[in-house]
Amino acid sequence: MKRYTWLGLLAAFALVLAACGTGGTTTTAAPSTTAPDGETSTTGEGPTGEAGQGGNLQLLMWQAPSIVNGMLSNGTKDTMAASLVLEPLANFGPETEIIPALAEEVPTIENGGQAEDLMSVTWTLKEGLLWSDGTPVTAEDAVFTWEYCMNPDTGCTQSGAFQGVESVEAVDDRTIKINFTAPTAYPYLPFVGAVSPILQKAQMEECVGRADQCTEQNNYPIGTGPYKVSNFVFEDTVEYEVNENYRDFANGKPFFGTVTIKGGGDAEAAARSVLEIGEADYAWNLQVAPDILEPMIAAGNGQLFVGFAANVEHLNLNQTNPDSEPPSEWMDGNNPHPVFHNNPEFAKALSLAIDREELTRVGYGVAGKPTCNVWPSPPAVSTTHDWCLTQDIDQANAILDGLGYMDTNGDGTREHPEFGELIFDFNTSTNGVRQSFQQLIESYWGQIGIGARMRNTDASVYFGNEDGADNINRFVGDIQMYTFVPLPGGQSHFAQYTTAEITGAFNNYGGSNLVRYSNPEFDALFDQLSTTTDQDERNEIIKQLSDLVVGDGAVIPLVWRASASAFKNDIKGYGTLNGWDSELWNIADWYRE
Amino acid sequence: MGRYVIRRLLLAIPTVIAIGFVIFAILDLAPGDPTSNLPLNIPPETREQIRRALGLDQPFVIRWLKWMQLMFINEPLHMIESIFNICIGDCENRVRIVSWAGRAPALDIIWGRLPQTLWVLGTAFIIGILIAVPTGILSAYKQYSWFDNVGTFFSMVGFSVPTFFTGLVAIVIFAVNLRWFPSIYDTTHHVDWTDWNSILIQIKQMIMPVAVLSLFNAAALTRFTRASVLDNLNEDYVRTARSKGLGERPVVTVHVLRNSMIPVVTLIALQIPGIFAGAIITEQIFRINGLGALLITAIGQSDVPMVQTLTFIFAVLIVVFNLVADVTYGLLDPRIRYD
Fold this sequence. Notes:
By secondary structure, chain A is α+β, with helices and mostly antiparallel strands.
């Protein structure tokens, strides 16, 4: 009896060990890629030779991909993982220029692709496009993708790109016509950019409305991009191999034979791996304090690059009264905020008191720039409000004195005749950088006699839409701070300041105008934007729209934020870091020196 | 004994159901929204649609009953089917617990994560025991000797310095400065037991996390073993054994050890569920992406089904290993009889 007990225990441990042994083997398909004979690259300075000659490219994404079907993406991490495989008709370039991918050319009024009445746009697929399984890409695939995403049971997260799309039709095998419900001057959202790729109908057909039954399809999508997935491990690793049916395969692209995306850890560890140790080639989204990054960069293994889109960390000044019952309801303009509504001078004082240089330095380092615009992306950048770039406490105090908000009871805070003590409720998400911003802003405003009750809410609640919770959609409070992430073109971005988009109980908080800004002049100008196709004219209108929102004191822009990623020194060919599309959009051009 | 085990197993059923309810209720009551992680440019209508597609618009009781059905009927059925390769009823369309983030069955994802967790934590656990038990015995037998003092020092260090510190120190020394080991754990590395190189790669990437965790695991267990052996060394039966002329070796290895190991084995058995639960911090630091990392990211992105499934599995494991501990206790100590 005695001895057997010990034997039993030993056996138990042996079982645990055995489980380790057998469980450790994950299947990895690694068939050798056979390249066609003797084609050489013809483009620019890149490498010459066969596609897939470059071995493995190791990418680090500390927030690891959960799924490779871009239509079901949970965020940038999934969109990027999908962008190696799935492609749209065209990509956004680093300056929002539209660069054809699967399409022959970008449809415009001039080339007849965009209808004169702006009600439709027609794209033509490149000739001879093949899916990675060797079957031809047709317009039917695009039509299917639209149907797939619009089915409410699919749970498609990218249906926003199809807003205002009435139908997608296949005119012939290579011609895709997108019809809009209203005149659309900027038609480059459906099937443009990594967030709106085209899926293969044959593969995804059975997944319409039941995406959760399609694990295999969602993680091993058949695409047109330079790579195909060879192994997917949920939120850990994605391994890719060359797609021999890629349209530039014969031209020696892509250079790397395999690509690995490895996730896990945090931004700091990812930065260390590329910059300090040099054990990986690229690390994404390095939101790391500047003083930690600098010594890593000094090690000399790699460099940090930033990609600017139009993301702006900003303050929303609630235009409706949060103390009414029900709170913060628009009521057709009959429930204004006692201080913030129609009070541009006051907002100007708040804005002038802020030292944006310091905020940027503390929070973002090279990955941010001070801004006074809600659309900071060149060339549509207004300079009207550039006074905000220099902190001026004296002028801010003078403005407040002029408005007659004086500190009559000597407690250090100014009073408003109706609102009382000028102390505002200021909420943001729980995040180290945002809390330092709150502290700094509290100290700036303290110098002009304005108080703030600083609060923060967990991001999963703050960016949610729960009834009775502190979130940006309900916006019960005076001031909120977050970053908006506009789509290219500015159309949907400025829609969020139109009267029609005001959110509230009456539309079940389904509007995008969270600050409840309303100005007929703005609405009219926005309508003009919706029907203007000329890019220079659009830029002018965008400048004016941005000026109105800031000038009316609804929004105080703070920092223009960029994404930051590190590349190892011997990786070349990636060009300017793309803030508007997947940073991996041109991975077929990357090579190792 | 058999009847005792059966009684305990039957008792475990309501326990597990109750735990399941508590887990479901707590996670349901917790604030958070699965769409809150989506980029801000995704319009509210799309968010509403996603919530509906995830079944979040249904009342609590319905969702709980559905979850019970999935957890206690569908998932076990699926498991039986895949083990025996058979089909029971409508196996093609069987609904399973699906992760919101991955749109894939939660248990399949967990199963895929198990190898790396067992590799690293299992090895660290075993090495920890192999270090702790002999050290503890020797420390007690030679109390206050230099060996005992050194052992006490190391167990105190291991016990009081957290793994996120020792882990980072190890990375800075061995990965950044010396370049001996990689700081990234490659979970897809396939170990070929006939190829030295392949084994070496696995050892290299495991050595830092395993060392850090073993130190931590061994620390507490050493102290525990030492205390337990010390208690027994002063017992009357040890003096009796010695006075009857038995040598030191049989006295320690047969008489003292058997009696001292009773609480130690219980402790070890109760720690086994911890191997499966993963080491959240250590996995994060070394990018091992096992079950601990899975749990923490699932919590971060409000992937409720994943969190529910993981915590429920941990709960079941704890219940099971409590039973295992009780049974081994009875086997080791003849004075304890359950019938």
